Amino acid sequence: MALLEVRNIEAYYGAAVALRGVSLDVAQGTMVAVLGANGAGKTTLLKTITGALDPRAGSVTFNGVEIQGRETWDVAALGIAHVPEGREVFRHLSVEENLRMGAYRRSDSDEVEKDLQAVYDYFPRLRERGRQHAGLLSGGEQQMVAIGRAVMGRPSLMLLDEPSLGLSPLLVQEIFHIIRRLAAERGTTMLLVEQNANIALSVSDIGYVLEVGRIVLTGPSRELAENPDVREFYLGVRDAGVRGTRRWRRKKQWR
Amino acid sequence: MRGGNSVKFIRKSSYDYDLRLFPEPEDKFWYALLGIALLIAPLILPPYFLGQAVLVGIYVIAGFGLMLLSGYTGQISLGHAAFFAVGAYATAVLEKSLPFVLAFPAAGLIAGAVGILVGLPALRLSGIYLAIGTLASSFIIGEVIARWESVTRGSSGFAISKIRIGDFLLDSDARLYYLVIAVAVAALWLGRNILRSPLGIAMMAIRDSQTAAQSVGVPLARVKLIAFALSAAFTGLAGALYAHKIQFIDPDQFTLLLSVELLVIIFIGGIGSLHGCVFGAVFIIVLPQAIAILKDHIPSYLAEQTGLQAAIYAVLLLGFILFEPAGLYGIWLKTKHYFSQFPHYQKGSQKDQKSHARGESW
Questions:
Q1: In angstroms, what separates the C-alpha of B118 from chain A's closest C-alpha?
Q2: Which residues of B touch A135 (CB under 8 A)?
Q3: Could B208 and A52 be called an inter-chain contact, meaning their C-beta atoms sit closer than 8 Å?
Q4: Per-residue pLDDT tens over the stretch B327-360
């Protein structure tokens, strides 16, 4: 049984359909990437898992317990940490206060101190900035705060919503390097939602492709990266046709 | 909100800095000096000014109540006059059978309970909708007070006797002054401590990002309700003291204008700082006097216009939001900075970013 099982969830914004029956599994200790363009429903999927949005149908099972429709803060207390889209740091709290907020539901203060030091070891830049207001940090540093805050909750599952958003290619590399280290060294299971298919497929074990509210393709990330459709539509690689440069537009196989 | 925090000139050298009650060692000295000044004020101030000082104290408490909710939890309220009224009426009604020492805290509790009632439907609202929601609630409460004549005596008003604590009668402004100052200091001290506690940090986290706050496990509903309750309770206590200061209350005293005045206190004082409540309260009491003096010096066709006061409020509020969103407290910090850097102050080091206060996330 997988750590997180999403079964046939349907989510709506008012009358607009956002998810049309999405199912996915996240096995313990793996990193799963969900790829999709704008409006595919990636963020909606994470919102439904965290309880910020109630699905109209379907179920979300975490550790064998159904959690769909619960309050977000209760879901967080179960051990699901969410790194929200656009970072959402607490602008007027210091970096350290931001990180400590991540441990809001924990009472083992000795361990919290250890985790705080661990986060500072992962992100040495944050140690320097510890006393600054988080709102004064650069985008990359804010993303580090958001990830560090999630780590502080000692989650068994981390949901990452577009950690590459608005960061320079170099910073994206750095952030993903650390995400991979977090997964390996702390054994945290990760569900990653990304537009940057290149980096997402290179760090993850399993990939899902989400298109207008449906999962259209899934498989081990390495295989997905070889898939001609994924290559063309998500990685931007255009293979040459038999007669040199291709001039026609491929049709996606799943359409 | 960006105010109070965006201009901060502090030399943090210890990790406990943010957690200390008085961050800088010299703070203790200045607060002690302020304490002495407050204590001897009744001996020096002429009676009229003492009466005004009592009102300042009352507005500090009420402003502090609103600051907890709007300044620190990010929930705007246009209905705080209602809690003020509930506190005033609660103490008036309860004192028919209870001594002041019991009726006063009970008034705070009742206002807090009403705060929770108002907070419940407001949980799902934010921004302008929350402002309208709280405004509507305050109209309902005002209407209840006006119509519930068997208890509140309706529009004929309610006369209130002077405060009696045991055998001690607070029959002068000086005595009332000491009580009000004591309550105000206690409220601010409690506020400072709440804001250093996990509850306070959770409140500020909600203000800065609801999404992130709930995803680290902050129970939004509960923390918001606590904020509503605390806020209403303190505003209610201020109302109770106000009732004793004025000694006569009727429903017409607690209108939208009062709610707006409370908002002016926290905005002009400096939103998101406890000092702001104090600066704002002084400002709101001094302003009408200043306007009265001004009236003698401007052409009579201007001075006799009705609504002159409201217009001046509006202009000042707009001016502060546009040019000094950190409020009087921001000006205070900048002045302090100027002198602490003297003569090395650099022109332009105080430039604010060119964005305007945007909705809730100030």
A1: 21
A2: 2, 208
A3: no
A4: 888 888 888 777 777 776 666 655 554 444 433 3
Question: Residue A146: which of B58, B198, B213 has the closest Cα?
Answer: B213
Chunked mean pLDDT (size 10), chain A, 255 residues = 93 91 94 91 93 93 93 93 91 93 92 95 93 90 94 94 90 93 94 92 94 92 90 78 65 72
Separation in Å, CA of B30 to nearest CA in chain A? 25
The complex scores an ipTM of 0.80
Option in B12, B17, B220 nearest A73 (CB)? B220
Distance CA A81, CA A50 (A): 8
pLDDT top residue among B18 and A229: A229
Domains of chain B in start order, with CATH, are 2-10+26-341 (1.10.3470)
pTM (whole model) above 0.90: no
Give the closest-approach CA distance of B15 to chain A in angstroms: 8
For residue A227, the domain's CATH number is: 3.40.50.300
B17 in contact with chain A, both atoms CB, cutoff 8 A? yes
Task: Say if A240 falls within a structural domain.
Answer: no
How far away is chain A from the Cα of B272, in angstroms, using its nearest Cα? 10
In the structure encoding, which two tokens stand for residue A253, read together? 């196989």
The total number of structural domains in chain A stands at 1
**Which of A52, A104, A131 lies at the smallest CB-CB distance from B216?**
A104
**CB distance from A118 to chain B under 8 Å?**
no
Distance CA B7, CA B3 (A): 7
Which residue, among B86, B140, B77, has the nearest Cα to B108 in the 3D structure? Answer: B86
Q: Which residues of A, range 155-194, sit inside 8 Å of B by Cβ? A: none
Closest to B85 in 3D by CA, of B19, B151, B28: B151
CA nearest to A215, candidates A207, A223, A205: A207
Show the domain range for A140.
31-52+75-233
